[in-house]
Specification:
Largest sheet of chain A: none
Distance between the termini of chain B: 23 Å
Helix content of chain B: over 70%
Number of helices of chain B: 11
Largest sheet of chain B: none
Oligomer: heterodimer
Number of strands of chain B: 0
Radius of gyration of chain B: 23 Å
Helix content of chain A: over 70%
């Protein structure tokens, strides 16, 4: 009997250890390495950064990369622009996503499952190809410009592709489902009689919305906003394909710093700074999810 | 069912049009005979034919499918283990760190994950001489790491909804914990594992940024090939490829939807 129990604890240990070690090695350790390299100096070598301990064995730490990020206005502007772009996309997704999620949650069950399917479907189609689809729509001789010229609204094509507006459209389009799904999940749980009761007691439609629907949907709003904002901050494909050559968003700057300038330490420092910016939204999201889970039980 | 307000209906219509118009326009232009992708040159299916004659696309697709199948299988195994330990094992040392590590990849920007993993592989190569070449193995490891988080979320939510009485009954009857898991818990969460596998497969097939970081010269996945082509603008054969993607996904999802709906109505 004792040996049987021992065998079971062994099995239990394996179940715990395998995923645990995997994540330690391939998720946590890499962040340590990024941090280490962000404190190195760029050198012309393979790999192109100085070792943490020099020949004499002394620790060599170089904070120039971070100092450079703070000194150079370009980087501050890039971070600011990424935040603004991601925030604008998040707000647009919320304004569009809330009524959509509300409409889906209030439709009859069979239509509802079809409507949900149509929201999830784009998820399964390649992200890259969905962004690509906008290139065909927005181009100078793309669908939208051709249509506008056919209507006679404009004689010359309007430059939409390769502008900041195109990046904004691409972000809002790609991340809209991430907003709708958590909103739908909370709105669907909501008791509609509460709204009716409030309106019976004389509340206007607007009052009922702000006093009842909005507070009850809060967990979904927070989850949706964070799920759009966080990945949008580091987006690389959308600014590259839809933005102009000077569309400096942080994900793209990181990529270029790494591959074009081959400055690995600076690229690592850019990544660390992006992570620092994202700590607050990530913590907000995790807290919100934990609270929501507790309430659901 | 109460009637929807006119405002909600018009936003719904606008929202779905916003989601689907770009896809429809790609499908429409994939049948365009002209080499200039945005000028209509008559109906033709020649770009579809060219897809199947393009060796680079076929090679890249084959590599992508191999990576997707391997990483989805690994991610399902590890993700299920992670879900089990989070829901069924109670408190253990390092639980907070673990639940943080398993949810963080869900929101981590791809550029950070990609860069950090590449630097890890470079460091490993300095220390251990492995991996000698970056390609299939490194991309598979990277994809397993982020998609096991998705599998863990799905398995976890299924497990926490599940009634524990069956497992408790088996234990009361003297079944060993390991047997309980294999004979009772796992068969009950198979649907969650299947959807986790499918999601992991799709995520892997979809990923461009992380794969670009951790792959070496000569190994191009399908998204990497597509990206290198569309960087320069719209091309007709990518239109055809995108349309094929849309067609396969739509048919699969609608079939699944139809089958589950029919089963739900029978019950």
């Amino acid at each position: 009997m004792a040996s049987l129990i021992k065998k079971d604890t062994l099995w239990r240990h394996i179940t715990v250890l395998v995923p645990y070690l995997w994540l330690l090695v391939f998720f946590l350790l890499p962040f340590g390495i990024i941090l280490k390299i962000s404190l190195a100096e760029p050198v012309l070598a393979q790999p192109p950064f100085s070792p943490t301990f020099d020949e004499t064995g002394a620790l060599s730490v170089n904070t120039d990369n971070f100092a450079f990020l703070f000194r150079d206005k370009l980087y501050a502007l890039t971070y600011l622009k990424s935040v603004l772009m991601a925030a604008a996309a998040t707000i647009c997704c919320l304004l569009l996503g809330f009524p959509i999620a509300y409409g889906i949650a209030r439709s009859d069950p069979r239509t509802r499952s079809l409507l949900l399917l149509l929201i999830v479907l784009p998820f399964w189609i390649s992200f890259l190809l969905r962004v690509y689809a906008w290139m065909g729509l927005l181009g100078n001789y793309g669908v939208i410009n051709n249509f506008l010229m056919w209507l006679g609204i404009t004689a010359q094509p309007i430059q939409i592709l390769y502008t900041d507006f195109a990046i904004f459209l691409g972000l809002a389009y790609s991340y809209l489902p991430f907003m709708i799904l958590p909103l739908y999940a909370t709105l669907e749980r909501m008791d509609l009689d509460l709204v009716d009761a409030a309106m019976d007691l004389g509340a206007s439609r607007t009052t009922a919305f702000w006093d009842i629907t909005w507070p009850l949907a809060r967990a979904g709003v927070i989850a949706g906003c964070m799920l759009v904002f966080i990945p949008a901050m580091g987006e690389y494909v959308i600014p590259y394909l839809l933005g102009g050559p000077d569309a400096l968003l942080i994900g793209r700057v990181l990529f270029d710093e790494f591959y074009v300038n081959r400055d690995w330490p600076l690229a690592s420092a850019v990544a660390i700074m992006l992570l620092v910016l994202l700590v607050v939204p990530i913590v907000v999201l995790q807290r919100n999810q934990a609270r929501d889970e507790e309430q659901a039980i | 069912m109460r009637k929807q307000s006119r405002f909600i209906l018009s936003v719904l219509a606008f929202g779905y049009a916003f989601l689907y118009l770009p896809l429809l326009s790609v499908i429409f232009y994939s049948f365009n005979d002209s080499r200039l992708a945005t000028v209509w040159g008559g109906f033709s299916t020649r770009w579809y034919g060219e897809l199947f004659r393009n060796e680079q696309i076929l090679d890249a697709t084959f590599l992508s499918f191999r990576i997707a199948a391997t990483s989805a299988t690994l991610a399902t195994i590890f993700g299920t283990m992670a879900g089990l330990m989070l829901v069924r094992f109670g408190r253990f040392r390092g639980r907070t760190l673990f639940s943080g590590m398993i949810t963080a990849p869900l929101v981590m920007p791809e550029v950070i994950t990609g860069l950090s993993l590449l630097l890890l592989f470079v460091t490993f190569q300095q220390w251990f001489g492995w991996p000698g070449q970056r390609g299939f193995s490194t991309i598979t490891i990277a994809h397993t790491t982020f998609s096991m988080a998705y599998v863990a979320v799905i398995v976890r939510s299924r497990l926490s909804q599940m009634d524990q009485s069956l497992e408790e009954a088996a234990m009361d009857l003297g079944c060993r914990p390991a047997r309980v898991v294999f004979d009772i818990t796992l068969p009950l969460i198979v649907p969650a594992m299947v959807s986790g596998w499918l999601l992991a497969f799709t995520l892997s097939l979809d990923d461009l940024v992380i794969a670009s970081f951790v792959s070496g010269p000569g190994s191009n996945t399908l998204p990497m090939y597509i990206f290198s082509k569309v960087k320069l603008g719209v091309t007709p054969d990518v239109n055809a490829l995108a349309s094929l993607f849309i067609l396969i996904v739509t048919v699969t999802l609608f079939t699944a939807w139809f089958l589950t709906n029919r089963r739900a109505r029978k019950v």
